[in-house]
Amino acid sequence: MKIAVAMSGGVDSSVTAVILQRRGHDIIGVTMRHYNYAGYGFSKDESIEADIKDAAKVCNKLGIPHHVIDTSKEFKKIIEENFISEYSKGRTPNPCTLCNPTIKWGSFLDKVLELGVKKFATGHYVNLRYEKGTYNIYKASDFNKDQSYMLWALNQKQLSKTLFPLANHSKSEVRKIALQMKLPVHEKDESQEICFIKGHYEDYLKNHLKLKRGKVVLPNGKEIGEHRGLPLYTIGQRKGLNTPWHSPLYVLQLDLKTNNVVVTDNPDDLLSRTFSVEELNWLSDNLPDKIDDLSVQIRYNSKPFPVEKVIEQDKIIKVILKNPARAITPGQSAVFYKQDLLLGGGIIR
Predict the structure, then answer these.
(1) Closest C-alpha to 70, from 84, 54, 49
(2) 27, 57, 100, 299: which is deepest, by most CB within 10 A?
């Protein structure tokens, strides 16, 4: 079978190509140029161009063709504009969960399929199974590396074209294969979380938003300091407030109407059992009627919380947790699971 492997220039995607090649498939490497280094504060060697070169080296080592596909216009229009817009509204977005359905499995996959391939493989650590006419995503065998949280917004058509060969591999096994194959990226570090931002995201926001200083206040309205602009803060944040106080302070609320950052010195104030989710996507049909073993993950690299009740309200659902969670943050993804089965997700309001 002819399969395109999304080659990011990292070790995971490189070993994905190795695994499929060992299985006898006809492999081509495809790399997405989703942003241009000019205007991002990158030097050429530090930019996406460096990752493209690494991907090309791996493809050359494996003796497979390498194609570079430009999606930078779509990426800028959809991902960057959403990122900036969300922060301007006092929300904290996760650009990867938007990029996956719209860019990687969207415009990029459409162009990849024009190369005549039957399947599209990536280096994500997730398990994809075809069961009773439905493509279901399960958590990877190595729960510590599981990346299913990032894929909640995909649809059945996209999944039908997809392979995840690393489903049952650990990171150490992947690096071992890369070393055995003498791949030039076998020691390469993990990529940064926000691919199009070099350094701290605050510098990026300062360049794209007009920030307005305002008051730092306690829940009772007492002013205790000044903030540098609402988009530079997120719910639960402790560091970076620069407000003298007798005990650690935490961001409790970003008040757009008053332009105030509301803080608290009581960590328990950040605990909540209820929140609402919008922009819902279910990988099969709808949220199951029975919510036995239902849990929800409210940020990447955190454990899911058991759900007590779900109340559907038009295109929004209200979630009630069995136990309170800390710093539930608007803009982040809420991803629902039934044990290790990914059901779908949405955006926290």
Answers:
(1) 49
(2) 27
- 55 in the same domain as 11: yes
- pTM over the 0.90 mark: yes
To the query of whether residue 195 is one of the catalytic residues in this protein, the response is yes
54 and 98 fall within a common domain: yes
What range does the domain containing 254 cover? 210-265
pLDDT at residue 314, rounded to an integer: 82
How far the first Cα of the chain sits from its last, in Å, is 43
Burial class (CB in 10 A: 0-12, 13-18, 19+), 230: buried
Which is catalytic among the residues 7, 52, 56, 99? Answer: 99
**Is 319:295 a contact under the CB 8 Å cutoff?**
no
Four-point Cα dihedral 246, 247, 253, 259, nearest 10: 30
Phi and psi (nearest 5°) for 112?
Answer: -65, -40
Looking up tokens 């090309």 gives 56
Rounded Cα distance between 91 and 278, Å, is: 14
Nearest to 200, CA basis, from 238, 243, 232: 232
Residue 302 lies in a domain: yes
**Secondary structure class of 151 (helix, strand, coil):** helix
199: number of CA atoms within 13 Å, CB side?
10
Would residue 99 show up in a list of annotated catalytic residues for this protein? yes
Rounded Cα gap, residues 18 and 22, in angstroms: 6
pLDDT at 219: 97
Tokens of 135: 């493509």
Based on its alpha-carbon atoms, the radius of gyration of the chain, rounded to whole angstroms, reads 22
In order along the chain (349 residues), what is the average pLDDT of each group of 10 residues? 97 98 98 73 62 96 98 95 96 96 98 98 97 95 93 98 97 96 90 78 92 97 96 94 93 97 97 98 75 91 94 92 98 96 96
CA of 155: how far to CAs of 174, 236, 243, 289, in Å?
28, 32, 45, 20
